[in-house]
Design a protein that fits this description.
Elements lengths: L17 H12 L2 E5 L5 E6 L4 H7 L17 H14 L5 E5 L7 E9 L6 E7 L1 H37 L3 E6 L5 E4 L1 H6 L4 H4 L13 H14 L3 E6 L6 E11 L2 E10 L7 H13 L3 E6 L4 E4 L1 H6 L24 H11 L1 E10 L5 E11 L6 E8 H17 L1
Antiparallel strand pairs: 1-2, 1-5, 3-4, 4-5, 6-7, 6-10, 8-9, 9-10, 11-12, 11-15, 13-14, 14-15
Length: 402
């Protein structure tokens, strides 16, 4: 024995009560209720919801018209499906349509309909989806903002790592909770005669003679408590050479750390390999790179820097003060160089730049002390902030398409 399909309830006795049922349904759970004839022509409209006056204004000319004629061309097929469903089964699935409006933007609605008897009218109840759409749009906007922030942080981190590795002095990142090394540059690896990856997880005491361990601990604790750079003299464990160390708080991407900078008291020879690497990098990178002496005078620049400043040739920048193009009072060249002498690296900061022809732009800048056989010099990496935004938008658009 097989089960026969369930037959719809006979609601024909309710046919004459359709207008009252519409009133009741609007009061209970819906924003609008419509009474339609068998062909989908609107016979009665009952506005409801939190703003019945808006629904009344929207539906002022609906009476006597087909429901299909009140929606956009793209959603008319949904009305056809709704009428077909309710005619065949007595009740329809929910259909989302968009009503055209002469007094404002088109309005999305979700409708369900029921047939009141074999030849009775159709009762359609709808929910205004504008609130849902607004929530969805806010969610999308929030997601895009999070992605925009993520990609910007990724770019800032990659440029910071580049400067971190090219710094002249040994630089170590110290976790503020454990006071252990989490990262170290190649200068630190050379100074302590240990691969940089092996330094990670160890106490910074490993690089100094045991009797200076408490001095180093006190240096880190003082920097953490005072919130500013502190300095001390210790001796290197490998060879006993005097070592100048300084610690300073730094807000790294996603965390707060200490930067521990160490350098031999005696002047060190410049690293020719590092200079060669820097020159090759400067020529290839799309970021603007400029190198100044300790007074802020340009000694070298790459083609990207010349293009950013609208110069015909990089040599036009040599010998000129970098401060002549920067127009920020918060991060002057002199202040930046002063901070570099304290910490070795200045992380990403926004500032203004004015090109040779007077065009202003917003840029993001990082700076570091660089190896040089001619004495102290400073490397700046710059990128326009509009370039970052363009890349983010392109990335997001690509992800949406795929």
């Amino acid at each position: 024995m097989t089960d026969s399909p369930a037959k719809p309830f006979d609601l024909s006795p309710l046919s004459k009560l359709a207008p009252m049922l519409a009133d009741m349904l609007v009061l209970v759970a819906n924003d609008v209720a419509l009474v339609l004839d068998a062909n989908g022509v609107i016979e009665n409209v009952v506005p409801g919801g939190s703003d019945p006056e808006a629904v009344r204004a929207l539906s002022a000319d609906w009476l006597g018209r087909s429901l299909q004629d009140t929606v956009t061309a793209e959603t008319r097929v949904k009305i056809e499906e709704l009428v077909r469903d309710v005619s065949a089964n007595g009740v329809s699935k929910q259909r989302q349509v968009t009503h055209t409006s002469e007094i404002g933007p088109d309005i999305p609605y979700a409708y369900t309909a029921v047939r009141l008897g074999q030849r009775g009218p159709l009762l359609a109840v709808g929910r205004d989806l504008r609130t849902v759409q607004a929530m969805q749009q806010r969610f999308v906007n929030t997601q895009q903002e999070m992605e925009r922030h993520y990609w910007k942080m990724r770019q800032a981190e990659s440029r910071y790592q580049l400067l971190f590795q090219l710094a002249t002095d040994a630089v170590m990142v110290i976790d503020t909770a454990t006071l252990k090394i989490t990262d170290a540059n190649q200068a630190a690896a050379r100074l302590f005669a240990m691969p940089a990856e092996q330094l990670a997880g160890k106490s910074p005491r490993i690089g100094v003679e045991p009797e200076f361990g408490p001095v180093l601990d006190g240096l880190l604790t003082s920097a953490l408590a005072a919130g500013r750079s502190t300095e001390a003299r210790v001796r290197l464990a490998n060879g006993g050479h005097p070592l100048r160390v300084s610690a300073a708080p730094h807000n790294a991407p996603g965390s707060s750390v200490l930067l521990l900078r160490a350098s031999l008291v005696v002047d060190q020879m410049a690293n020719p390999a590092a200079e060669s690497t820097l020159a090759a990098l400067a020529e290839r990178t799309q970021d603007a790179i400029v190198i100044t002496d300790q007074h802020g005078l340009v000694t070298m620049a790459n083609p990207a820097f010349a293009a950013l400043l609208e110069l015909d040739d990089v040599n036009q920048a040599v010998g000129r003060p970098l401060s002549g193009w920067l127009n920020s009072t918060d991060h002057s060249v002199a202040q930046t160089i002063g901070a570099l002498l304290q910490n070795g690296v200045v992380p990403l900061f926004p500032t203004g730049l004015r090109g040779e022809n007077g065009r202003g732009m917003q840029v993001e800048v990082s700076a570091t002390l660089l190896p040089s056989s001619d004495g102290a010099c400073v490397g700046f990496i710059m990128r326009t902030r509009t370039v970052i935004d363009t890349e983010i938008v392109t990335n997001l658009a690509s992800r949406r398409v795929h």
